Amino acid sequence: MTLNFRQARRAGHALSALTLAIAASAVLAAEPVAEVAADGDTEHVNVVGQAVSMDKAIKEQRTADTVKSVVSADGVAQLPDENVAEAAQRLPGVSVERDQGEGRFVSVRGLGPDLNSVSINGTLIPSPNSDTRAVALDVLPSELVQSLSVIKTLTPDMDANSLGGTIEVKSLSAFDHKGLFYTGSVEGSHDDNTGQNSPKVSGAASNRFSLGDGTDNFGVAAAVSWGKRDFGSDNVETGGDWDFEDGAKLEQFEQRDYDITRERTGAGLNFDYQADDYNSYYLRTLYSRYKDSETRNAAGVEFADAQAAGESGDSEGWRELKSREETQKIQSYVLGSEHLRGNWTINAQAGWSESSEDSPGHIASATFEGTDDFNSGFSSTTKPRLNIGSEFYNPANFELDSVEWEEQHTTDTEKNIKLDFARDYELSGNSAQFKFGGKLSRRDKDNDLDSWVYEDFDNFGITDDELSLTQYTKGSVHYSLDNFGPGISASAIKKLLSRLDRNAFYDEEQSRVNDFTMSEDINAAYLMHTVDVDAWRIIAGLRYEGTEFKAKGTGIQDGDYVASEADSKYDHWLPGLHVRYQLDKETQVRFAWTNTVVRPSFEQLAPGFVIDGAEAEFGNPDLDALESSNFDLGIEHYLNKDGVVSAFVFYKDIENFVYNADLAGTGRWAAFDEANTFANGESAELYGVELAWQQKFTSLPAPWNGVLMGANATFSRSDAHIEGQGQKRDIDLPFQSDTVGNVMLGWENDTVSLRLSANYKSDYLYEVAAIDDKAHDLHVDDQTFVDFTARYFLTKNLQLSFEAQNLTDESYYVYTGSRAYNGQYEEYGPTYKLGLTFTHF
User: Domain TonB-dependent receptor-like beta-barrel: where (predicted)?
Assistant: First the structure.
């Protein structure tokens, strides 16, 4: 018997409901499941968290029409991960960019985060950051997520705005459970670098109700999460200020100490209504608030003449404070419905999402300059240590030079309406489906920055004694990489500024040039046809996306302000073909040819500019969108219910990739010494192989039947070409890692669940220097993170957990040209967590 598409969908829903009923507490609670069987007075508790997670992910991957990797909610909780970004990095081909040791932006198949898209419950999530499209997934607590998927080949009914992959996040639904369910967790963590302890609490609940003539046809699910983490890092960086003309000599470097409090609050409230067998409705809501309070103390020197390691000479010294509070919010509301009319299925959805970043008035920089030169030098070119006398650590030798005060607010709003029609029918005795639809998307991005620069204090009645650093010290800075000296008090700086008329210090140039408004309207439509012929499943279709982009801002040319506006329209026709062939019951081959389009980042499109004499710096609103033709071919073999092994090769032919460029000496900028902007590269290629394996060894005798293992690796290469100043050179694609891999070893029995995991990402090109200065390209070094988690059921409802992150104390290292020369080095240390979870199911 051949199932038509609607029957297959209903069968899939039934299978999913059965699986989720078995795993009831794991899904919503994001914890392992406890099964209880009474035998007289004996109570049997069976941990099935890791096993259920693997089963669900394998089933979804197996039946997907795309090349797709999945981690379910219980899988997220099984991993020692602070947020959704770190959970995603366990998937094949996925890695993350870390900030302060914590995962933020997701990279797929080694490509940069701006080349991916993120959607929650089917609607695009805009970025709260002012300069990027990439969504920092650390704003989403993992407790609010039911499933996380990375889709690497897009069908025509999906948004075409990703090159590496589309990250799909789905939140909770009451129809994933039977009856009343609730859970609550408390957790404490310890940051080894700072010695700080931090709390976290979360909870979730769901239930079904009967409305009208229906039975359990209305569902409500809710989840909340709150956590506050105190942590920090120690940093030393040169910024790439090396002089390579006469050996390798350093011009300046800086020590930095970060002290951070990070608070997350998340909530989700979802409603589902099955009106009858033919009509269903849903409302998905998600709110996340991420607040960072950061204090950064810095101390540095600039040598009068560039110096090699071990040399000494005159230098200027400084000490600096940055103190700011930054709040990022993400809101998402999705209203949708599905209607069955004979052989037709109609899906309608409206989505509204908004991301924002608010940085109220704060000290962007308070700089104290040394009153005299210091005799200094440094040792080590990779992790420079300062060789300097005790006078550098005496606050009496520093005087306040300037204070930069800033306020900034960014908002990114995305509204969309989507309508899909699908008709099931038979084509020559084979199940087939014709699908078509469209989507209207309206996106608005704005940035508002106000800046004040306080300097020349003696002109405003401030005495030399009042400018001495001795008036602003705040104890000694705990800095593990070297000696540091006194910290700077933010409250003392603010007290000084309160005595001054801030209108006299307003920086109109910075304030106006960095303000912008941008709008991006996308109209999309598609046709898609699917047919099953014996062991073949073939999907062919065409997607159209028309884009209208507008940007407004302000530039400054030799002291005069100039309005800057840009308006562009462009169209893309994007054909696609997906083929899946069933070699046997457990083995299938996949092929996909897809075409995608990625718009440049907002920093790259910024309309503001500064032209000062023979130097210019500006965004480029006229950039072309990046286009890519993608080919994927692979095989998947399923090891019954125990696991899967797969291998894929992929190739991407890319046009119009964007890179940093200096256009001085060309065209309009022929007479300029510098003209720093962004430009489209001619072409680039990315190709590679992706291998994955995971398995449960349930067929082995005890205790080996509790073993779970997994490993995946992606090996890729990229070739890109850039030009400028009449020259050309070859580079790797920025942010592209040649090798990404994961290894996991787990074990579980009736009451205990253990997992040890490691994630590796090879080095990548971070920033391109001038076309003729490859030696100053910045690269991020390879990283390996090792984490461990253990869970134990004290009773059938109560679970104790222990997690350890970054056991190897991995650092973050940026190098200049080659690994021997520091760009930036930062240490974070391990983090340990202890938690307790109660679950009713």
Answer: 371-807
342 vs 667, higher pLDDT:
342
Q: What is the pLDDT of residues 706-733, one digit of tens each?
A: 999 999 999 999 988 887 767 788 889 8
CA distance 586 to 31: 30
Write the CB contacts of 518 (distance below 8 Å, at least 6 apart in sequence): 444, 445, 446, 549, 550, 551, 552, 602, 605, 607
Closest CA to 319 of 468, 491, 480, 507: 468
> CB neighbours (10 Å) of residue 790?
15
For tokens 């009914």, the residue is: 157
**Closest of 234, 287, 226 to residue 262, by C-alpha:** 226
pLDDT at 45 over 50: no
Report whether 699 contacts 714 (CB < 8 A). Answer: no
Residue 662 region by backbone torsions, left for phi larger than 0, else alpha for psi between -120 and 50, else beta:
beta
pLDDT in tens, 422-471: 999 999 999 999 999 999 999 999 999 999 999 999 999 899 999 999 99
Q: d(Cα 413, Cα 519) in Å, to the nearest integer?
A: 10
Q: Which helix (H) or strand (E) holds 629?
A: strand 626-638
Residues 836, 96: Cα–Cα separation, whole Å: 28
Provide the β-strand partners of residue 658. Answer: 680
Cβ 711 vs Cβ 760: under 8 Å: no
Residue 620 CA: distances (Å) to CA of 285, 604, 663: 36, 6, 12
Instruction: Give the HSE-up count for residue 184: Cα atoms under 13 Å, Cβ half-sphere.
Output: 1
Bridge partners, residue 137, by sequence: none
The CA distance from 43 to 36, in Å, is 7
**Chain-centre distance for alpha carbon 267:** 20
- Per the document, the length of the chain is 841
Phi, psi at residue 540, to the nearest 5°?
Answer: -130, 145
List the beta strands (DSSP E) in 342-429. Answer: 344-370, 374-379, 385-388, 398-427
The answer to whether residues 206 and 321 touch, using CB atoms and an 8 Å cutoff, is no
Which is it for strands 778-780 and 783-793: parallel, antiparallel or unpaired? unpaired
User: For residue 21, what pLDDT is reported?
Assistant: 31
R_g (Cα) of the chain, nearest Å: 28
Domain topology for 5-840: Maltoporin; Chain A (2.40.170)
Q: Which uninterrupted H or E stretch holds 546?
A: strand 536-557
Both tokens of residue 525?
């439509």
Q: How far apart are CA 796 and CA 35, in angstroms?
A: 7
Give tens-digit pLDDT for 509-523: 999 999 999 999 999
Instruction: Report the predicted TM-score, pTM, of the whole model to 2 decimal places.
Output: 0.85
Residue 521 has which token pair?
């309207």
Considering only residues 800 and 699, tell me which one the structure prediction assigns the higher pLDDT: 800
Is the separation of the CB atoms in 142 and 83 below 8 Å?
Answer: yes
Nearest to 119 by CA among 133, 129, 109, 132: 133
Strand, helix or coil at 648? strand
**Which of 719, 590, 725 minimizes the C-alpha distance to 644?**
590
* C-alpha–C-alpha distance, residues 146 and 173, integer Å: 8
Encode 327-361: b = buried (16+ Cβ within 10 Å), e = exposed.
Answer: bbbbbbbbbbebebeeeebebbbbbebbbbbbbeb
User: What is the domain partition of the chain in residue ranges?
Assistant: 5-840
- Quote the pLDDT of residue 237: 96
- For tokens 């060894």, name the residue: 697
The Cβ of residue 499 has, within 10 Å, a number of other Cβ atoms equal to: 10
β-strand partners of 206:
181, 221
* E strands present in 456-535: 473-476, 486-488, 516-533
Question: Strands 727-731 and 707-724: what pairing?
Answer: antiparallel
- Virtual CA dihedral for 154, 157, 162, 165, nearest 10 degrees? -40
